[in-house]
Structure formats: C-alpha cells, structure tokens
Amino acid sequence: MSRRDAIIAYADQQLPVYRQIALDIHARPEVSNYEFFACQRLSEQLKAEGFAVTVDVAGHRTGFDARYKAQKPGPVLVFLAEYDALGGLGHACGHNLFGATSCLAAASLKRVIDEVGGEIRVYGTPGEEGGENGSAKGSFVREGFLDDVDAALCVHPGDRHLPTTPSLGCAPVDIEFWGRSAHAASAPEKGINALDALILVYNGLNALRQHLTPDVRIHGVITNGGSAPNIVPDYAAAKFYFRAATAPRLEEVCQKAQRVVEGAAAMTGAKGRLQPYQNRVENTVLTPGFDEIYRRQMASLGVTVGAAQDKPGIGSSDVGNVSQVVPTIQPSICITDGPTPAHSEAFRDAACSDKGLQTIALGAKALALSALELIEQPDLLAQIKREHAENVRKQGE
C-alpha cells in the first residue's frame, strides 16, 4: 500500500471514532479556559493513537501538546486544534469539527511518519473566540512552541471550500480611569470625574477613525460608568477592540489610542490606563504556495477549492499569530448546503450534521497529504518557507 493510500485508508477507518468525538464536544460546549471536556476527549484520543501528550501548557490549563517523533530525521509539522465554543451559541463556529479534524490528520500521517521521517505535533489551543485567557496561539508563539516548527496546518469549517483568507489583527484592551468621588450636587468641585475622562476617550477614538486607513476597525463598550447619578464617578471602564490588516498598522493604532487616553487624563485630572486583557491577535500572513498544495490534494480527493478572496477579511483569528512565525494554512471546508453565516444557529446545526461530520475525514486526508508532500519534497518545503519569509517582510512596506 502506498503512503497516500495508507493515510486515506486510516482516515476512513477512524472516521466513526472522530465523528463521535465531534458530536460529544458539540453536545457539551465550553468557552475559553473552560474546555475541560474537549481537551480531555481530544488529548486522550491522541494518547490512544500513540502520541506523547502534555496537558496544561503555555499558560493555558485547557491547552495540550501532543507529539510523535520518528527515528528518521525530518521536518517538524504541527496541526492546530481548536475546540472552544461561543457563549450562548455553542459550537456555532464548528470548532467541535476543527479539533477532531486536526487530530485525525495527525493520526493518519502517523501511519507513514516512521518511513518518511520527521515529527508530528498537535497543539490544542484554547479560546480562539477570545474570552478568559483567550487566543492561546499567541501564548504558544510567545512561549517558544513554534521555534522549531517548519510549518503549521489546520482547516476551518465554513460554507464554501476556500483557501486561507486574510484576517485582521486584533488588540483587545481595557481602558480604565480612576478619579475622586464627591457629592455631585453639593461639592462637585471636589470630585474628579472618571466617566468624563472615559467619554472623552470614546469620542476621541471616534474622531480618530477619519484619519485611519479603511482596513482599521475600532469598536468598544463602556462596562462601568459609575454607581449613582449623585456621586461623581471615581472609576470608569471600557473594553475595546482595535483591528488592522497588518501588524505594524495595528501597533500604530494602539499607540494613537494610548495618546488619546493620556490626553483625556490630562484634561480631567483622572488617572488613565490602557492595557491588553488577553493576547493580541495578529493578522494572517498568506503563503499562497502552501495553499496550492492543499488545493491540489483536495482536487485529488474530488473536491474543488474556490478562488481566494481579494479583499481583507473583516474578522480576526489567532491563527494569524502562528502565521507570523511559520508558514501556515487555514483553508475553509464546506459543512453547509448553501451560504450560512458563522456564529449563527444554522451554522451550529451544520456543525453536527451528517455533512459536517463527513468533512472530518475529508479535511484530515487533505491536511495529512499536504504535510506528507512537504516531508517528501524538502525543496518544496524550503520554497514555501522562503515565500512565507518574504510575505512577512513585506508587511512593513
């Protein structure tokens, strides 16, 4: 049996196991930092597949690191696994399928890795949707988990078959002000109004929009504006997202926002602070040659991947953090019968439908075969790495 046939046969053979895992995770949705069941379900399956697994990694109690290394040397390839749900909506982004697909891809590639050489890893990365200790891929990058990795692969459920598409970087921040309380009627002159400072920031950021490039998005909410109308608020707080198409531009937006906060503090006398409340999400650096490998493998499996979108994506994903440091693909795999928005009840239902569950094997085969091609063709992998490095460099232009 050829290596290709061995991968395909194993993915088909193991599909019932991974279907059930995806259904079990779908039935027990968990948000960022609380994906205990999903983490255990996936990591235990990888142990059964012969991987060495460590849980609670990179500062994330529901993260895991699974590895299998062949005796024969070769590249290090990592499959990224997501498994968090949306609060109130459950698995309306299909991450129950995402995690199962990546794990099956790794297990399928393992059937031939001893022959071709190299190392397979699966990184279980919590909180892609954000939330408590969210956007774990940023932690994996920061803590060095990608330092010796040659390439990263994953596939995301969608309503079309598409290559990896652009996404915006996102900086989630808390903006807080501390003032001094006083009676708002009898002694307002003794107070320092923290809410006034925060409103100045809110309006200042709105004014800033007209001087930013079209890709930039700024949106936020006031989470604390005081306790009573007759008390000068001594504390006020807001949460904001700053988004941009490139890492340098996102940093520029954050610096401008910092100056707005400093200006409001100077105007009111309140003490202000802007700081991240979870990992910054970076924009996705595309490596079209890598996606072409995936497209070719999907075609060999009888599936046509559509054309890339020309305009930048309007959402954000922490797969971008990984793409900043190693060649990365995250194409979309169709789990619906027509256009269906993500983060909707209809998409949640698709994530446990028969069509959605069948994509676990399809995605696993395409990812594993793409990884195999990189292992078998060192010159191709080197070319992909050069293309990626150039595209990372061009972000600053």
Question: Overview of this structure, please?
Answer:
This protein is an alpha/beta fold. Helices cover 42% and strands 18% of the residues. The protein contains eleven helices and twelve strands. The chain has a six-stranded mixed β-sheet. A four-stranded antiparallel β-sheet has the order 8-9-7-10, covered by helices on one side. The protein has a two-stranded parallel ribbon with strand order 6-12. Helix 2 packs parallel to helix 3, helix 3 runs parallel beside helix 10 and helix 7 crosses helix 10. The model has no long low-confidence stretch (mean pLDDT 96).
Structural class based on helices, strands and sheet pairing:
alpha/beta
Helices, by number, come to: 11
Strand order of the largest sheet: 1-2-4-3-5-11
Low-confidence stretches: none
What order do the helices and strands follow? HHEEEHEHEEEHEEHEHHEEHHH
**Rg result:** 23 Å
Question: What distance separates the N and C termini?
Answer: 49 Å
Mean pLDDT: 96
Shape: elongated
Residue share in helix: 40-55%
Instruction: Tell me the total number of β-strands.
Output: 12
Described by strand count, sense and barrel closure, the largest sheet is: 6 strands, mixed
Beta-strand percent range: 15-25%
Name the descriptors.
elongated, four-stranded antiparallel sheet, 397 residues, six-stranded mixed sheet, alpha/beta
Question: Short description, anyone?
Answer:
The protein is of the alpha/beta class and 397 residues long. It contains eleven helices and twelve strands. Strand 3 (76-81), helix 3 and strand 4 (119-124) form a beta-alpha-beta unit.
